[in-house]
């Protein structure tokens, strides 16, 4: 249930309570150009470059030198039916592995992925929730405070696409309207012949438009579109943080500590406390 790779996150030294610094951000997590959408027919952003405010924040020297515990982080919650491939999607991106055998997620789990976006550090705290009905009440306790909601369906199981509306409704019931970026992701696209894939994508695009979500089709098995998808999530979440800071009246750098619920230290602490409570 509590499955973190220690090298990826900032750790606390238990002996004297001092904070240790995380290792440098890996080269394959550096995002320079604004990532493109999967299809303009169901996209949250059609623009091809960063906002002016983002560019200004990225060139701010002070923001680049923020201590790690004031760096920005967004909470991402992944929901969807059991067996659609949520865990595999996360594992393909975070660990570059693919597990053929199904192991149900019990409750929740999370990973932290660190990025460098146009010179600034930024992290995603990615929550994997259980699709099984019997674990739903545990998982739903973690929907609150999400900046991104990813609703996942299996491209080879059309019923799971129908259920995404319900999943989104439940996740949004714990969050303020319009507070989250929403993505609709079809997994296992390796399983479909191209004609059928196109039909399913058209259905998904229709539903994504209703949900005001951005649509992506991916395969955790082949890795197809997985990195591109998470880069897009990171870029849009990052821009949202920057815009929020400037709307809240902060100076144009990020990491001024105004968005308390999305800075690195407080999110990690909240996650640790939540996990502790659910284990007791
Ligand atoms: N062919 C193919 N199989 C996949 C893909 N992604 C996941 N699977 C398979 O689908 C099954 C379920 O994957 P999981 O990631 O465990 O599903 P989940 O949505 O996390 O399930 P819960 O934890 O019960 O909510 C596993 O047997 C995976 O091997 C994919 O992209 N292609």
Automatic annotation (TrEMBL):
<dbReference type="InterPro" id="IPR001806">
    <property type="entry name" value="Small_GTPase"/>
</dbReference>
<keyword id="KW-0813">Transport</keyword>
<dbReference type="GO" id="GO:0046872">
    <property type="term" value="F:metal ion binding"/>
</dbReference>
<keyword id="KW-0472">Membrane</keyword>
<keyword id="KW-0653">Protein transport</keyword>
<dbReference type="GO" id="GO:0003925">
    <property type="term" value="F:G protein activity"/>
</dbReference>
<keyword id="KW-0460">Magnesium</keyword>
<keyword id="KW-0378">Hydrolase</keyword>
<keyword id="KW-0636">Prenylation</keyword>
<protein>
    <recommendedName>
        <fullName>Ras-related protein Rab-36</fullName>
        <ecNumber>3.6.5.2</ecNumber>
    </recommendedName>
</protein>
<dbReference type="InterPro" id="IPR027417">
    <property type="entry name" value="P-loop_NTPase"/>
</dbReference>
<dbReference type="GO" id="GO:0000139">
    <property type="term" value="C:Golgi membrane"/>
</dbReference>
<keyword id="KW-0479">Metal-binding</keyword>
<dbReference type="InterPro" id="IPR005225">
    <property type="entry name" value="Small_GTP-bd"/>
</dbReference>
<dbReference type="GO" id="GO:0005525">
    <property type="term" value="F:GTP binding"/>
</dbReference>
<comment type="similarity">
    <text>Belongs to the small GTPase superfamily. Rab family.</text>
</comment>
<keyword id="KW-0449">Lipoprotein</keyword>
<keyword id="KW-0547">Nucleotide-binding</keyword>
<comment type="function">
    <text>The small GTPases Rab are key regulators of intracellular membrane trafficking, from the formation of transport vesicles to their fusion with membranes. Rabs cycle between an inactive GDP-bound form and an active GTP-bound form that is able to recruit to membranes different sets of downstream effectors directly responsible for vesicle formation, movement, tethering and fusion.</text>
</comment>
<keyword id="KW-0342">GTP-binding</keyword>
<dbReference type="GO" id="GO:0015031">
    <property type="term" value="P:protein transport"/>
</dbReference>
<dbReference type="Pfam" id="PF00071">
    <property type="entry name" value="Ras"/>
</dbReference>
<keyword id="KW-0333">Golgi apparatus</keyword>
<dbReference type="InterPro" id="IPR050227">
    <property type="entry name" value="Rab"/>
</dbReference>
């Amino acid at each position: 249930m509590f499955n973190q790779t220690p090298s990826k996150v900032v750790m606390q030294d238990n002996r004297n309570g001092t904070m240790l610094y995380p290792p440098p951000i890996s080269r394959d997590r550096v995002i320079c150009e604004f990532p493109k959408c999967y299809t303009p027919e169901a996209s949250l952003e059609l623009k091809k470059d960063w906002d002016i405010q983002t560019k200004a924040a990225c060139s701010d020297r002070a923001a680049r030198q923020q201590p790690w515990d004031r760096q920005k982080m967004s909470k991402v919650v992944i929901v969807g039916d059991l067996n659609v491939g949520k865990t595999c999607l996360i594992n393909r991106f975070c660990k570059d592995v693919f597990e053929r055998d199904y192991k149900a997620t019990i409750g929740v789990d999370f990973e932290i992925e660190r990025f460098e976006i146009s010179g600034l550090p930024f992290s995603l705290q990615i929550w994997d929730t259980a699709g099984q009905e019997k674990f739903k009440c545990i998982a739903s306790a973690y929907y609150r405070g999400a900046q991104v909601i990813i609703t996942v369906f299996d491209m080879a199981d059309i019923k799971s696409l129908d259920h995404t509306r319900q999943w989104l409704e439940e996740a949004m019931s714990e969050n303020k309207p319009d507070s989250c970026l929403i993505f609709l992701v079809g997994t296992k696209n390796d399983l479909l012949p191209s004609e059928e894939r196109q039909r399913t994508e058209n259905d998904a695009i229709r539903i994504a438009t209703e949900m005001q979500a951005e649509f992506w089709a991916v395969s955790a098995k082949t890795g197809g579109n997985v990195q591109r998808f998470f880069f897009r999530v990171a870029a849009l979440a990052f821009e949202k943080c920057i815009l929020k800071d400037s709307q809240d009246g902060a100076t144009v750098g990020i990491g001024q500590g105004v968005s308390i619920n999305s800075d690195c230290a407080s999110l990690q602490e909240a996650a640790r406390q939540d996990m502790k409570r659910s284990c007791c």
